[in-house]
Amino acid sequence: MIILASASPRRSELLRNASIPFRVKPAHVPESPNPGEAPLAYTKRLARDKARAIQPQFPECFVLGADTIVVSDEHLLEKPQDAEDAVRMLRLLSDRTHQVLTGVCLIEPGGKVEDVRYETTNVTFSPMSDAEIRSYVATGEPMDKAGAYGIQGVASRWASKIEGCYFNIVGLPIPLVYRVLREHGAI
Known about the structure:
This protein has helices spanning 9-17, 39-54, 83-93, 130-138, 166-170, 174-183; strands spanning 2-4, 23-24, 62-72, 75-77, 97-107, 114-125, 159-163.
């Protein structure tokens, strides 16, 4: 059995769509970077922390943790705190390329083996007017998403170029996850 240490409905949907059997047990760990921690190290650490937080409750299962962040010009963009924070983030993304990083951690039954990997996808947004940004934020869609946007929703209209795994932008790089699960005998 695979336990997904995440409350993200998008991650659950991606796993279901890929016919990967799992159960959900959200991990509640502090999500803030350590002083001087690079974005990649941060997202990998959070994925590991989430998996480790749940593993003792399911010692006979595989536990999958994941964390997704957006980085634009060295700015770490997680979930927005409020509407104005979402507007700020979207302004940073307008008319430029940013990176979506997802750390993934699989812990084997017994907890002795941890495999931590990551995926990076480059996303280019076309220019967005301030009115478009504010209208988008008013939909509420950006509020629970890293970088303040959902590529699978309204924000798709501004994603002019994607280099890498689309599913990574949604929140879970399914090809990478499938490969890791297969390598460890989870599926």
